């Protein structure tokens, strides 16, 4: 079937085997073998062959393409519109979720800053000869040290993220 389709399409376009071979960068005998059913083109050559014959690969392989009438096209366009609306709603929901997560992150940072202000470094006065207090005090101090340096950057980035999620589309 493929061999007949190649031959019929080539002849309907008024192209000789030699001309088709030149377009595809193959020898004329290769085109002849395809048309006589002695060999078949590989997948990449099949695409090039379809382009050279100004047709689709599916038509070249003998698949019948169905012409859609206006009602089918209208139904397909309505389905695509519904899908686009669903995608837009999903995208908006995702942006809204990100916005609320950023707001929650800002609130957490503020609460931790308030907690750190409330303890006012009281762990510095602990008796560090007690190993348990020494470990706890070191962990709290390390956390406070890192938090005070990193949290403002994260807070500002979160605020910028919140503002960007409110940006009009």
How do you describe this structure in short?
The protein is mainly α and 169 residues long. The protein has helices at 2-12, 17-24, 28-35, 43-52, 57-60, 70-119, 131-166.
Question: Can you put this structure into words, describing what you see?
Answer:
By secondary structure, the chain is an all-alpha fold. It folds into two domains: 2-60, lambda repressor-like DNA-binding domains (434 Repressor (Amino-terminal Domain), Orthogonal Bundle), CATH 1.10.260; 92-166. Helices cover 75% and strands 0% of the residues. It is built from seven helices and no strands. The chain starts with a helix and ends with a helix. The relative contact order is 0.07.
Task: Summarize the SSE layout with pairings.
Layout: H1 2-12, H2 17-24, H3 28-35, H4 43-52, H5 57-60, H6 70-119, H7 131-166
Helix pairs in contact: 2-3, 6-7
């Amino acid at each position: 079937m493929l061999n007949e389709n190649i031959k019929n399409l080539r002849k309907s376009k008024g192209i000789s085997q030699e001309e088709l071979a030149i377009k595809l960068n193959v020898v004329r005998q290769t085109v002849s073998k395809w048309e006589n059913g002695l060999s078949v083109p590989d997948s990449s050559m099949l695409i090039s062959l379809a382009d050279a014959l100004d047709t689709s690969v599916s038509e070249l392989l003998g698949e019948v393409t169905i012409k859609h009438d206006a009602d089918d096209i209208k139904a397909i366009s309505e389905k695509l519109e519904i899908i686009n609306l669903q995608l837009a709603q999903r995208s908006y929901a995702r942006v809204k979720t990100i916005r609320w997560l950023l707001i929650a992150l800002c609130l957490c940072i503020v609460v931790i800053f308030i907690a750190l202000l409330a303890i006012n470094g009281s762990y510095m006065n602990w008796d560090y000869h007690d190993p348990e207090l020494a470990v706890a005090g070191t962990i709290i101090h390390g956390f406070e040290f890192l938090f005070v340096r990193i949290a403002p950057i994260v807070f500002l980035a979160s605020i910028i993220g919140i503002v960007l999620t409110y940006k009009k589309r």
